[in-house]
Amino acid sequence: MKLIILVDNNTKDVSLLPEWGLCIYIEYNGNKFLLDAGQSDRFLKNAATLGIDIADIDYSILSHAHYDHGNGLSSFFEANSKAKCFMRKAVKENCYHKYWIFGKYIGLKKGMLSKYADRIQYVCGDVEISEGVYLIPHKTSGLDKVGKDAHFAVKCGCGYRPDDFSHEQSLVFKTDKGLVVLNSCSHAGADNIINEVQSTFLDDKIYALIGGFHLFMLPDKKVESLAAKLKALDVQKIYTGHCTGERPFNILKNALGDRIEQIYTGLSVEF
Q1: How many alpha carbons fall within 13 Å on the CB side of residue 264?
Q2: DSSP per-residue codes, 129-148
Q3: What's the CA gap between 166 and 26, in Å, rounded?
Q4: Which has the closest alpha carbon to 211: 192, 232, 187?
Q5: To the nearest whole number, what is the mean pLDDT of the chain?
Q6: What angle do the packed helices 220-233 and 190-200 form, to 10 degrees?
Q7: Pairing of strands 95-99, 152-156
Q8: 5, 263 Cβ separation under 8 angstroms
Q9: What's the DSSP call for residue 54?
Q10: Are 235 and 256 in contact (CB under 8 A)?
């Protein structure tokens, strides 16, 4: 199994274009997958620089319905004529960041879901999209409180309700080393996601967790609490970036040592 980060906030290679967002290219069991597409066509340019042909992608997955992960999908659909994009049935163009009565739209490009309806595969529950490859929804109760505390909301008619992240999903691969879990922003909490996946695959140990942890606005004590939970859950490798943030990453690194690594545009990892 091989992963290449096509888009992240950072890069170590001046020939690659970073942006606030995430896009991950994956090779597994003879198939090619694309998780998210960033917020623009930069993933396409980076893929070309790295010698990756987006037209060859077999499966596309949207982790959740935010612009910085899904707005590049229109460019993906134009560059690739065969891959369906798998997303939760709850995905709509209705995600906001809300303070008091004011909401800032952070959702998918308006009209994209209808324009490319024939390329979208909506899913519910646990789904195996290819042999050894699974999409797992959130199974933790009370996530609307997490959404409320983080000021995430979805618009319902003329009002808003706290986001319960029912539009978010984890992408899971079975490997010889154990389960490799990808969740691009982990809005529901990285520890909750680990527990959700572990409770789904009782006979398999989680080897790696990859994605953003959405910690950049959290105080040190909350990050330290998550670090302690991650350490206790005994995941062997953690790769994080995008919405994690430099300060929180340093706190996690101090607690987890070599088990955790920073991701960046152009990073290649093999399991």
Answers
A1: 10
A2: EETTEEEEE---TTHHHHHH
A3: 24
A4: 187
A5: 96
A6: 20
A7: antiparallel
A8: yes
A9: G
A10: no
* Contact (Cβ atoms closer than 8 angstroms) between residue 14 and residue 49: no
Pairing of strands 133-137, 169-175: antiparallel
Is the distance from CB of 172 to CB of 134 less than 8 angstroms? Answer: yes
CB 95, CB 152: distance < 8 Å? yes
Q: Comparing C-alpha atoms, which of 238, 97, 228, 85 is closest to residue 160?
A: 97
pTM of the model: 0.97
DSSP reduced 3-state for 169: strand
Question: Sheet holding 31-35: strands in order across?
Answer: 120-123, 84-88, 59-61, 31-35, 23-28, 2-7, 268-270
Q: What is the SS3 assignment for 100?
A: coil
What does the CA dihedral 33, 45, 241, 20 come to, rounded to 10 degrees? -120
Distances (CA, A) of 261 to 47, 177, 230: 22, 18, 14
Nearest to 71 by CA among 5, 123, 115, 12: 115
Whole-angstrom CA distances from 233 to 198, 227, 241 are: 10, 10, 20
From the CB of residue 168, how many other CB atoms can be counted at a distance below 10 Å? Answer: 27
Give the Cα separation of 239 and 261 in Å (integer): 5
pLDDT, tens digit (0-9, with 9 covering 90-100), for 139-158: 999 999 999 999 999 999 88
DSSP letter (8 states) at residue 117 = G
Helix (H, G, I), strand (E, B) or coil at 197: helix
User: Is-contact 194 209, C-beta < 8 A?
Assistant: yes
The amino acid at 233: L
Read off the pLDDT of residues 189-200 as tens digits, 9 standing for 90 and up: 999 999 999 999
181 close to 194: Cβ distance less than 8 angstroms: yes
- Six token digits for residue 109: 């490009």
Q: What is the mean predicted confidence (pLDDT) over 103-114?
A: 97
